[in-house]
Prior knowledge:
With 199 residues, the chain is α/β, with parallel strands linked by helices. The protein has one domain: Aldolase class I (TIM Barrel), CATH 3.20.20.70. The protein contains six helices and ten strands; from the N terminus they run E-H-E-H-E-H-E-H-E-E-E-H-E-E-E-H. Helix 5 links the parallel strand 7 and strand 8. The longest helix has 12 residues. It binds the ligand O=C(O)c1ccccc1N[C@@H]1O[C@H](COP(=O)(O)O)[C@@H](O)[C@H]1O.
Amino acid sequence: MFVKVCGLSTPESVREAVDAGADAVGFVLTASPRVVSPAQVSRLLADVPSGVAAVGVFRHEPLADAIAIARAAGLEWVQLHGDLAPEDVTAVHDAGMKLIRAVTMAAAADAFADWGEELLLIDAAVPGSGEAWDYASMVDVTALQDRKWLLAGGLDPANVAQASAAAGAWGVDVSSGVEVSRGVKDLAKIRAFVKAAKS
Length: 199
Ligand SMILES: O=C(O)c1ccccc1N[C@@H]1O[C@H](COP(=O)(O)O)[C@@H](O)[C@H]1O
């Protein structure tokens, strides 16, 4: 199970996620209680080994701005929430970056199709809200069969194993469920989440 831990803003939380076995770490570069600056991300990357994907998270920014900000931060991955078109996937790749394309669980069926992105992420209606949803509703979506896709929204150490199995997800992504309060990560929960997801 691929595990991404998102909304990291301190060296301690980055090190905990990496040591626990996370496959990807996320840095929020858009309006959020978890927002970090590109300069902060550059410093946090010192604790991310080459085998772990470091992802810049954006929502509603113009694509060119997101790419420029991610590049300034030293990131090779972007996670884009908001309205995207298939051409945007090409534009991210043309910029030499990899893409997590984020859609909500209520998106039109076409949004679940393979547009060529590295990973698809299926989230609650409001990203980063900690809101759980009907994960099992994804298990029969034909477009997701044999796809690399991440489940997100309302996951935590207690529900991640059951939720990912119910959805048929290839991986998971978490933010709120590993926090002690909004925007403040709980190191023990990060470790417990990765362990539960990979168990
Ligand atoms: O975490 C945020 O604040 C955020 C803001 C804007 C876009 C995406 C954001 N995070 C993503 O939301 C989910 C985590 O949701 P939850 O908090 O665990 O319910 C994950 O995909 C994050 O990358």
